[in-house]
Predict the structure.
Amino acid sequence: MGKHHNIYSMSGRADIDKLLHSLGGRVTVSHELFDREALTVYGPGNFEIHIPQVTSSRRDRFTIAHELGHYFLHYLHPEETGMRTFGRGQRNWAETQANVFASHLLMPEDAFRRAHRAHGGDWWAIAEVFNVSPSAAEVRGQVLGLRS
């Protein structure tokens, strides 16, 4: 998806904002201090990702990528129409799929393997390359069979 929309820098970092806007999406920050992350789709090419006030920019990037996963996998792919809402925080197959989508989108395999070699498996340094949390980088590395 990221390659199709030409969102990657030379290092492999995804320009999530570019993808979001090209798809007709937008982000709103909740006025509630501890509101949960969610996606509201009004129709194809018209959706809103809701993020709380108190999360880090790296968490927000993963949330946006996660909600894009719902948009592609659970709205566009099954050819849904009309309004639909997806909430984050549940433990089910759709949430797992959205997390995997986000991980692949933010840390594409080839670029991730290059960064892993360049940084000797240092998850903190690899996380910096992709602007994700060290734990997200470590999980991606484990899935790819890479070690620190």
User: Anything to note?
Assistant: Residues 6 and 126 are 21 Å apart (CA to CA). The helical segments are 16-22, 57-76, 93-106, 109-118, 123-130, 134-143. The mean pLDDT is 93.
